[in-house]
Amino acid sequence: MPQTKVFHIRSPLIKSKPLSKKAGKDVYLKLDNLQLPGSFKIRGIGRTCQEAVLINGAKRLVGSSGGNAGVAMAYAAEELGVPLVLFIPTSTPPIILERLKDYPGAEVRIAGTNWDAANQEAMTLLEQDPEAFFVHPFEQETTWQGHATLVDEIKEQLVQEHSDLRVPASLITCVGGGGLAAGLIIGLQKHGWTKVPLVCMETTGSQCLYQSVKQGRQVKLDAIETIAKSLGALAVCSKLLDLAKIHPVIPKVVTDAQALDACFKFAQDHRMLVEPACGAVLSALYSDKLNDCETDIGGDASPIVVIVCGGNMASMDLFQMWKDQRRMELK
Fold it and tell me: Any idea where the Tryptophan synthase beta chain-like PALP domain is (predicted)?
């Protein structure tokens, strides 16, 4: 791709004093929740959209996502000056609908009750429009390569900003469709961190990776039943399952309650609001989920790196509602 401005920022990598104390080792937070469109998605989606328009000459973009990927598509389309037709399911949270209103060039069409149904409508439109390019929310090579830049930055920042020459004990992320996890593994392999486990967090009701690894095949869920709407794919991409055969991947499942509690604790510790999918990532430490895989991630003093992936689906009103719900559950 010709040299051009990337759409993502080099997000901060900070050492978390509260989580380092809890884990008994250094914990670094890669703050991709600070990306301008609100999540890590702009890394891969941005690269895919740029290649489609600047190299392949696409006149229009078509996408499907009721979450962070859709916001990233709208942002990238606006930056590129091309129209976008975005299909979203009826399950799309109202807060995402509000975010999308910031991008008047994006035509939003509501179709189906889940992402798979919305995606099918996008496929139908593409058959009628040969000049349009389809942007998948998690299953394109350019998207995985874009997400791999996270590892590029982490390796540089550990050395340049923290004088930390150690190889991480593990990276922790979440899994919905698996695009982020696939990109992280590509990045880990690229930099020779081939033995660094990728801990992949899911919530109960979205655990398609956990079930796939457990059964040794790609498992498609019947429905998504979790508050972590960003983890709303019924099945992970086959690319992630292929990469999991050559790289250590540790899938873990937490409850919605654990994910929400991690969001609350993170807000208290670091004064940032993140969405429940990101809470699932953080719950690996806040709920001590890493303790039962200490052997797999190494018990030495090597640091843990946590991908703080996004905050589009978080607000003060939602936090108050979630807190009220948790109080009722705990009574």
Answer: 9-310
- Retrieve residue 98's tokens: 């509000």
CA distance 154 to 151: 5
Query: Does residue 243 sit within a domain?
Result: yes
Tally of CB atoms within 10 A around 328: 8
Does an H or E element contain 141, and which? helix 141-160
Contact by Cβ (8 Å): 274, 282: yes
pLDDT for res 298: 57
Residue 321 contacts by C-beta under 8 Å, 6 or more apart in sequence?
A: none
Which residues have CB under 8 Å from 30's CB, separation 6+?
11, 12, 13, 150, 153, 154, 305, 306, 307, 308
Domain ends where: 135, 161, 181?
Answer: 135
Is the separation of the CB atoms in 193 and 167 below 8 Å? Answer: yes
Residues 260 and 123: their CA atoms lie apart, in Å, by: 35
Token duo for residue 67: 């979450």
Q: Domain total for the chain? A: 2
Residues 19 and 49 in one domain: no
Q: Which amino acid is at 12?
A: P
d(CA 65, CA 135) in angstroms, rounded, equals: 10
Q: Are residues 31 and 154 in the same domain?
A: yes
229 and 304 share a domain?
A: yes
The pLDDT value given to residue 297:
59
Of the residues 119, 135, 151, the one at which a domain ends = 135
The 10 Å CB-count burial string (b at 16+, else e) for 224-263 is: bebbbbbbbbbbbbebbbebbeebbbbbbbbbbbbbbbbb
Which domain does 101 fall in, by range? 41-135
Mean pLDDT by 10 residues, the chain (331 residues): 79 98 96 97 97 94 93 97 95 91 94 88 92 94 98 98 96 95 98 97 94 93 85 88 96 94 96 95 90 61 95 90 82 67
Beta bridge partners of 203: 254
User: Would you state the pLDDT for residue 49?
Assistant: 97
What is the secondary structure of 235-290 as a DSSP string?
S--HHHHHHTTTS-EEEEEE-HHHHHHHHHHHHHHHS----HHHHHHHHHHHT-GG
